[in-house]
């Protein structure tokens, strides 16, 4: 067998040299062969017929075997080894090493060999170039220099006992993975300068090829690797990509099709540990944007595996920080509890509360001074308006649920402040759907809403913030309480009167501004709160005026189009008005008749001039 030549980690027959005379005394006392039993498997070690110094090379290299032989009384010794790292396979490789048989140290067996050598005490105290030294050389010169080999060795450590930690194999592999990943990114950054024309998929594949390798690790080792990567400076987006891939491979048994039945691919405890660990590993750097789809996926998984409350609150807080860019499908989280509502309303409610707390903190940092150019352009207020529209759509989506209680529906409505909605059309639509569903589902779940409950629900609708179309619908909606219909009609009359009188609402705005003057009797903190409240009202009022202006422009365009349609065949609007005034004169008295005759007499004189004036106006 001549497979060993140039590879320094391949071993063949060679002449071992003993280090002291103690070996001679032991071997001279042993007459026959030695049988070693490793976890039930027997290994028969024969004496070589060369020299007494060459008897039992394994005994000469292993301190543990040497002590066991010295303590044995029987000449035909039978020794038993229990719980040797790597089992019989690792012991067989160690035996081949001692007897000079052909084998090669690789990344697949080096961890087992190193731990077995430690267990057998195969150090330099007994022979030069013993197994511990040879495996250490391979680890330091080959494994830690390669990211791929480090991951492979770390994977093999998952089946080894704690002795692997004692000799430091996992810690060295973890640091090597993080360091080599950093080097890979530096090299990739330089290569990107030369591959601008390549596709994004190819670039990402070249930059993060190690992501798939890390998914082979157990969650405990994977956590240590991610911590080391974050410490050594690996980009957060690469860490996020690794987290997503690890979740897809390790939690692939959890899907939307298994909402009501937990998967059997992993034990429940392992699933919970993986979910909680992945959420804790998400980067906290604000410059790194974790995809919302991944965060909502992890939120659903944390609900399904009943993760720790702190874990769920953390992912909810992260989602709340970007709630303004969330879609409706994202927050439609199914409920896993049978007999309850179809959607997890409580989770969305907590996310919304976290978002409002974030808006409150941002407003605390803003200047409370009045700046006319910044009214209506506050980023926090714009985010709040977007979330208001999102929640209105969410309410309309969950309203038909026959198992949705009135308390949860009302809680979702009243958590949003009034200034979160410019118009209440979306809220009115959601409430109307809920009222309609409550009438249809009486026989299924609950009794019909009482009149008092309907009033409580409808009081959240501000009739002054309804559009013309919503007002027309509400005035004919028999599901609404009578008081609500009366309020709608009243404010519609006020709106019509205001439009006819030409009042643009400046008095109302000036009244709002004047009411915001702080009182001398108020404390500075109360003054600040009052100014903030008035500032919000001003922003909301300006937003309302913009919406109203848009509606008026549409109405003006519609009226103009109607007037143009009515003035066909060359007739102008002024001509139709003059004819209308002439018809009114028919019902006047005699004086009116005389005036009519007089006007007919003068028509011949002024006809041409009048026509020319009308043409000049057009």
The percentage helix is: 55-70%
What strand order characterises the main sheet? 3-2-4
Query: Count of helices?
Result: 28
Low-confidence stretches: 1-6, 12-31, 49-54, 196-207, 255-264, 367-377, 504-524, 570-618
Query: Proportion of β residues?
Result: under 5%
The value of Rg in angstroms is: 42 Å
**Helix vs. strand class:** mainly alpha
pLDDT averaged over residues:
76
Tally of DSSP β-strands: 5
Give the CA-based shape.
Answer: elongated
Largest β sheet strand count, sense and barrel closure: 3 strands, mixed
Terminal residue distance: 110 Å
SSE topology:
Elements lengths: L9 E2 L10 H8 L4 E5 L2 E5 L11 H5 L1 H9 L6 E4 L5 H13 L3 E2 L5 H11 L10 H13 L3 H10 L6 H4 L2 H24 L7 H8 L2 H5 L4 H14 L3 H15 L17 H13 L11 H13 L4 H12 L7 H4 L13 H21 L13 H20 L7 H9 L10 H16 L10 H8 L9 H8 L6 H20 L4 H10 L8 H43 L6 H12 L5 H28 L1
Parallel strand pairs: 2-4
Antiparallel strand pairs: 1-5, 2-3
Helix pairs in contact: 4-5, 5-6, 7-9, 9-12, 14-15, 15-16, 16-18, 18-19, 19-21, 23-24, 25-26
Which labels suit this protein?
28 helices, disordered N terminus, 3-stranded mixed beta sheet, mainly alpha, 618 residues, 5 strands
Describe this structure in words.
By secondary structure, the protein is mainly α. The chain is built from 28 helices and five strands. The chain has helices at 22-29, 57-61, 63-71, 87-99, 110-120, 131-143, 147-156, 163-166, 169-192, 200-207, 210-214, 219-232, 236-250, 268-280, 292-304, 309-320, 328-331, 345-365, 379-398, 406-414, 425-440, 451-458, 468-475, 482-501, 506-515, 524-566, 573-584, 590-617, and strands at 10-11, 34-38, 41-45, 78-81, 103-104. The strands form two sheets. It has a three-stranded mixed β-sheet with strand order 3-2-4, with helices on one face. A hairpin with a 2-residue loop joins strand 2 (34-38) and strand 3 (41-45). Helix 5 (110-120) runs antiparallel to helix 6, helix 9 (169-192) packs across helix 12 and helix 14 (268-280) packs antiparallel against helix 15 (292-304). The longest helix is centred in the C-terminal third of the chain and has 43 residues, at 524-566. It is elongated, with a radius of gyration of 42 Å. Mean pLDDT is 76; it is low at 1-6, 12-31, 49-54, 196-207, 255-264, 367-377, 504-524 and 570-618.
């Amino acid at each position: 067998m001549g497979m060993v030549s140039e590879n320094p980690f391949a071993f063949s027959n060679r002449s071992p040299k003993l280090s002291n005379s103690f070996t001679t005394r032991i071997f001279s006392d042993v007459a026959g062969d030695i049988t070693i039993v490793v976890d039930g498997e027997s290994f028969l070690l024969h004496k070589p017929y060369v020299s007494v110094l060459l008897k039992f090379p394994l005994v000469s290299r292993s301190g543990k075997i040497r002590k066991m032989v010295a303590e044995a009384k029987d000449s035909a010794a039978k020794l038993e080894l229990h719980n040797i790292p790597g089992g019989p396979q690792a012991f067989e490789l160690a035996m081949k090493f001692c007897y000079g048989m052909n084998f090669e140290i690789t990344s697949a067996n080096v961890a087992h060999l190193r731990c077995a050598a430690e267990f057998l005490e195969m150090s330099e105290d007994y022979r030069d170039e013993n197994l511990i030294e040879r495996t250490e050389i391979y680890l330091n010169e080959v494994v830690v220099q390669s990211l791929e080999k480090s991951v492979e060795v770390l994977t093999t450590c998952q089946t080894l006992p704690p002795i692997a930690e004692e000799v430091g194999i996992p810690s060295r592999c973890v640091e090597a993975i993080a360091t080599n990943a950093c080097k890979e990114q530096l090299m990739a950054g330089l290569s990107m300068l030369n591959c601008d024309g390549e596709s994004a998929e190819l670039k990402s594949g070249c930059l993060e090829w190690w992501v798939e390798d890390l998914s082979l690790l157990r969650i405990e080792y994977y956590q240590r690797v991610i911590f080391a990567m974050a410490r050594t400076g690996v980009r957060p987006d690469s860490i996020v990509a690794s987290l997503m891939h690890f979740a897809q491979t390790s939690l692939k048994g959890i899907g939307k099709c298994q909402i009501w039945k937990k998967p059997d691919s992993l034990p429940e405890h392992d699933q919970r540990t993986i979910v909680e660990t992945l959420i804790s590993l998400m980067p906290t750097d604000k410059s790194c944007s974790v995809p919302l789809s991944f965060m909502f996926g992890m939120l659903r998984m944390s609900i399904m595996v009943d993760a720790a409350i702190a874990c769920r609150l953390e992912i909810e807080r992260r989602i709340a920080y970007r709630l303004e860019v969330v879609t409706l499908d994202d927050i439609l989280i199914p409920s896993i509890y049978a007999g309850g509502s179809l959607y997890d309303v409580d989770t969305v409610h907590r996310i919304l509360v976290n978002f409002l707390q974030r808006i409150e903190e941002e407003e605390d940092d803003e200047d409370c001074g009045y700046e006319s150019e910044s009214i209506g352009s506050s980023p926090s207020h714009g985010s709040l308006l977007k979330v208001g529209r999102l929640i209105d759509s969410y309410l309309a989506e969950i309203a038909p649920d026959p198992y949705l209680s009135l308390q949860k529906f009302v809680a979702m409505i009243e958590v949003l402040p009034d200034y979160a909605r410019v118009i209440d059309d979306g809220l009115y639509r959601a409430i109307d759907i809920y009222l309609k569903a409550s009438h249809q589902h009486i026989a299924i779940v609950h009794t019909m809403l009482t009149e008092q409950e309907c009033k409580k629900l409808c009081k959240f609708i501000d009739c002054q913030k309804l559009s013309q179309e919503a007002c027309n619908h509400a005035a004919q909606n028999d599901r609404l309480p009578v008081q609500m219909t009366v309020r709608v009609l009243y404010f519609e009359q006020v709106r019509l009167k205001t439009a006819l009188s030409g009042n643009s609402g400046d008095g109302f705005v000036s009244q709002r501004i004047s009411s915001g003057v702080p009182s001398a009797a108020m404390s500075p903190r109360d003054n600040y709160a009052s100014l903030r409240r008035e500032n919000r009202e001003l922003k909301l009022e300006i937003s309302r005026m913009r919406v109203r202006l848009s509606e008026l422009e549409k109405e003006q365009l519609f009226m103009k189009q109607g007037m143009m349609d009515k003035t066909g065949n060359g007739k102008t609007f002024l001509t139709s008005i003059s004819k209308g005034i002439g018809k009114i004169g028919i019902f006047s008295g005699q004086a009116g008749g005389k005036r009519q005759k007089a006007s007919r007499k003068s028509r011949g004189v002024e006809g041409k001039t009048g026509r020319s004036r009308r043409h000049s106006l057009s």
